[in-house]
Design goal:
Layout: E1 6-11, H1 15-26, E2 31-37, H2 40-50, E3 54-58, H3 66-76, E4 81-86, H4 93-100, E5 104-107, H5 112-123, H6 131-141, H7 156-166, H8 171-178, H9 182-196, H10 201-210
Parallel strand pairs: 1-2, 1-3, 3-4, 4-5
Length: 220
């Protein structure tokens, strides 16, 4: 038997956008759209009831915006994978969304292939960012990571794990690449987050990129 389909929730306040996304994703093998909503409050409710694997979330919606919606969803369902949709890659609200825990971002002018790749990456727990978007986030989130973290005494193995996180690998992939168990990977990640004084692996990845532990272009 093959892998179960990736369950997708679409949250965008424009009906035409939702319809276009739904029709396109319906043609992609391994994807199933489980719901469509038009605002942040509805997205929180739908995430709670529909149990999606990936939530395509518009950054700008009436009422509760994408960043606050991300925070609320992850407060209830920490395993949710949120892929932000936006028309503007330099929107500072992207920074707030990533601070809240979003894993990736796709511009609304992206190709279908780019959208599909981003969904698959995020579903697997990998970050999904164009290089120029990563640079914008690096600049905006730099102050979020404690400068003293450079002296946080990361072990050699933790540095290796951090580098692979920044390269977008999920836990299983890190396990296979470094020849350690998934449980060990999770333990290393827990230690890394604690030592860097951050709460999300995306923030740890941005720390690695900013401080030269991983290469920006290789990580995307």
């Amino acid at each position: 038997m093959g892998s179960p389909p990736i369950r997708i929730l679409i949250a965008d306040d424009h009906p035409v956008v939702r319809e276009g996304l739904r029709q396109f994703l319906a043609t992609e093998p391994g994807f199933v759209v489980v719901g469509e909503v038009g605002d942040g409050e509805a997205a929180v409710e739908a995430a709670r009831g529909l149990d999606p694997d990936v939530i395509l979330l518009d950054l700008v919606m009436p009422g509760v915006d994408g960043a606050e919606t991300t925070r609320r969803i992850l407060a209830e369902r920490e395993a949710s994978r949120i892929l932000v949709l936006t028309s503007f890659g330099t929107d500072d609200r992207l920074i707030h969304a990533f601070k809240a825990g979003a894993l990736g971002v796709v511009l609304k002018d992206a190709s279908g292939a780019e959208l599909v790749e981003a969904i698959r990456n995020v579903a697997a727990g990998r970050s999904s960012l164009r290089p120029e978007l990563a640079r914008h986030l690096l600049q905006g989130m730099a102050h979020e990571v404690c400068e003293g973290a450079l002296e946080a005494s990361l072990t050699a193995r933790e540095v290796e794990v951090l580098r692979e996180i920044a390269h977008g690998l999920g836990n299983e992939e890190i396990s296979e690449k470094l020849f350690i168990s998934p449980a060990t990977v999770r333990t290393h990640i827990s230690h890394i987050l604690a030592k860097l004084h951050v709460s999300r692996r995306t923030q740890a990845a941005l720390f690695a990129l900013r401080h030269g532990i991983a290469d920006l272009d290789e990580a995307t």
